[in-house]
């Protein structure tokens, strides 16, 4: 193992160096595919941690077999793939979002890893130890001890701040997706109960419901304008539902015991709508734009709605 070859500050600098190179690679690749610039990654800054951790792990664990190209390739592939699977699984459990998804790739395992990505990790491992590491190590070890410590400390502080901000945004995205999913379920249950009771919606209410399901698709301009347009459609739809419920109650076409709980649901939806602020949507949009391929199996429709509202289509 190579742990004793470098000091702690030097390991930190290696982590950030490879995290930066990973960011350059992924941002460039995704930007070409998206046909516009994408600041790729979970963080705001030019670092993708999984590349930094992966490189450090490969340096520490694969150095003993660096003399054998096949062993280096397969050991690097194994350790990097294991790290990718563990990271993808942990992030989905925490944030309910997959920040990369190989589900549509051949020979994938639960969407977290796939054969092609693993082969790339093996190639990167060979390139790292045989090509990049020698000159990079020469640059880092040329720094004096105090200089390396100061630079590593400054980068670590900036990294910690970025992690804190980005984690908050990711948790906000999770909460927003949960709220949008809950809202969709509430409205669907309300519509279903009333239809079971023999209520046939007036045309304007049906149009409002259809507009709600498509909200944001035809909206243009800034995110704030899209959000306000969507809120106005939702307010109109809920108000029309409330008005018709009251009318049906007065006409005796609906049991009075049904209208009370359903009116309460409508009021809850109005309150929840106002609690979803523009800032929450904007923070979620930043996460989605940095990760255009992100998916979620728990809140699929809510994710589609959110991407449409914020202009963050995959």
From TrEMBL:
InterPro entries xrefs: CmpB_TMEM229 (IPR010540)
Keywords, ordered alphabetically: Membrane, Transmembrane, Transmembrane helix
Protein's UniProt keywords contain Glycoprotein: no
Biased segments, Basic and acidic residues type: 298-307
Transmembrane segments: 6-25, 46-66, 72-91, 112-132, 138-165
Superkingdom, taxonomy of origin: Bacteria
Pfam families: ABC_trans_CmpB (PF06541)
Protein name according to UniProt: Putative membrane protein
Organism: Allofournierella massiliensis
